[in-house]
Design brief:
This protein is mainly α. The chain has one domain. Helix content is 51%, strand content 0%. The protein is built from 3 helices and no strands. Helix 1 packs antiparallel against helix 2. The N and C termini lie far apart (37 Å).
């Protein structure tokens, strides 16, 4: 049996954010513009869940081009 990826608190936060997105009331953080992208809405929901301390997998990080070169 595998462990749950997202906790109940994170699911509740995502449900709220996606509802706002579908209604058209979800605003982006700094600029305050209306969010039009589904992917952006998901990213906002996950970051809000992380901030509130919910169980969410860590944010993916990009590998820099320098570390890719050193592995060759």
């Amino acid at each position: 049996m595998t462990a749950l990826r997202y906790g109940p608190k994170a699911k509740k936060k995502m449900k709220k954010v996606m509802h706002e997105y579908k209604e058209g009331t979800l605003k982006s953080g700094r600029s305050g513009k209306k969010v039009r992208s589904r992917k952006q809405a998901i990213a906002i929901g996950l970051s809000e869940a992380r901030r509130s301390g919910a169980k969410v997998p860590p944010k993916r990080t990009k590998r820099s081009s320098r570390s890719k070169r050193s592995k060759r």
